């Protein structure tokens, strides 16, 4: 079943058109990557889905048109956005950040269990559970950002450049944990990632954006077989 469908989505910042026909489909429980050069419109696509920019075209989630909804309305329907740059709250502890992620929920017992699950998924965070966000390393902040997104119990998680600025081994750890989260929770994901090799460990399919337009989509196997994709995104 299709969970999210973008058809010919357009978006502008002021007079500058940044998205010029983005189409992609995320099956329920599926994981889709978005590849593209700097400035191709990957982040804006995620912002279009989460209601942070005005868009044209059509975006349906679970059969409902969500174009024109405000970010909090989109979140309430089950879409959690983990933005580039992490966005964790530096004055709050790890545990408090996780509680903030669950702010739309009222199932207190399940929230406590889910916090424990996050600390199991990212054991480094368990050791830092009382530390302020500002005291965490870059990798720990990124783990917290993903865990906070999960705490909303979304049906779709939008992950923007989760590996940015992390050492390769830390990035690999974070992606392994996200892979486990995907397997165990069944949450669908859209993964924007400069490091396509890393993204391909997680996603089933991907779409390539060029100057705000979808130019190619396929399963990871199909994309790996294409020379231009290997050269541009997979390091040969
Ligand atoms: P990157 O990998 O560099 O983050 P991206 O593919 O995610 O790239 P976007 O961040 O979506 O690309 O940006 C697409 C275009 O929109 C770029 O040309 C960028 O300069 C421009 N842009 C992004 N945010 C704004 C903004 N708030 N105001 C004006 N222009 C913007």
Could you give a short description of this structure?
This protein has helices spanning 42-49, 71-76, 94-101, 108-121, 123-127, 138-151, 168-185, 196-199, 220-224, 227-233, and strands at 2-13, 16-27, 31-36, 55-61, 64-65, 79-82, 156-160, 188-192, 205-210, 213-219.
Describe the structure.
The chain is α/β, with parallel strands linked by helices and 236 residues long. It has one domain: Rossmann fold (3-Layer(aba) Sandwich). The chain is 38% helix and 28% strand. The protein has 10 helices and 10 strands. A hairpin with a 2-residue loop joins strand 1 and strand 2. Helix 3 runs parallel beside helix 6 and helix 6 runs parallel beside helix 7. The model has no long low-confidence stretch (mean pLDDT 94). The site of adenosine-5'-triphosphate (ATP) has 11 residues, from strand 2 and helix 1.
Name its key features.
six-stranded mixed beta sheet; alpha/beta; four-stranded antiparallel beta sheet; 236 residues; single chain; 10 strands; globular; 38% helix; binds adenosine-5'-triphosphate; Rossmann fold
Write the layout of secondary structure elements.
Blueprint (H helix, E strand, L loop, with lengths): L1 E12 L2 E12 L3 E6 L5 H8 L5 E7 L2 E2 L5 H6 L2 E4 L11 H8 L6 H14 L1 H5 L10 H14 L4 E5 L7 H18 L2 E5 L3 H4 L5 E6 L2 E7 H5 L2 H7 L3
Parallel strand pairs: 3-8, 3-9, 6-7, 7-8
Antiparallel strand pairs: 1-2, 1-4, 4-5, 9-10
The protein binds adenosine-5'-triphosphate (ATP).
The site of adenosine-5'-triphosphate has 11 residues, from β2 and α1.
